[in-house]
Amino acid sequence: MLPATPDEVWRAWTEPDRLPHWFGPVLKGIPGPDVEYVLEGRGAHGDTIVCRVLTWEPSTRLRVTWRYTGETESELRLDLTPTDDGGTRLLLEHVGFGPEADPVDYAAGWHMYTDNLEAHLAGTPGVADSDARWMELMPVYAAASAD
Questions:
Q1: Which of 62, 72, 73, 145 is the most buried (most CB within 10 A)?
Q2: What's the CATH code, domain 6-145?
Q3: Residues 6+ apart with CB under 8 A from 31
C-alpha cells in the first residue's frame, strides 16, 4: 500500500519532474497517451529504457512496453486502486521477458524502486544506496524463484 491517493501515485509515475525523485530521469519525450519516451537506465554505462505507452488511464491503469538496453521488449503493467484509508494499492506486473533478462534482477529492482516511491510519496528520504539495497534483495528473490 502506498501513502498517497491514486492521483498522486499516477503523477509520480508519469511526470518527468517527479520520476527522478524515486526512479530516474526522463531523457527524451514526456509520458502520455500513445507516446514513446526514454528513461535513464540503472547502470553507469549509459543504459536506457525505451517505453511506449499502450494504455493510459489516469489514476487507474498504465501499460507500457519496456525495452532496456540489450534486452528484448517486455511489458510493464500498473494498476492503481484506492484504499479505504486514502492510500493506493499498486499492482505492478512486469511480463514477457526475453531470455537475456533476469526476472530475479527485475524483482529485486522493482522492490527497491517501490520502496523509493513509497518514501517519495510520504515525503521521507528514499534508499540512500540503491545498489546496496538491490544487492540485499537479490538473494531473497533468487531463493523465492528456486522454490
A1: 62
A2: 3.30.530.20
A3: 13, 14, 15, 16, 37, 51, 53
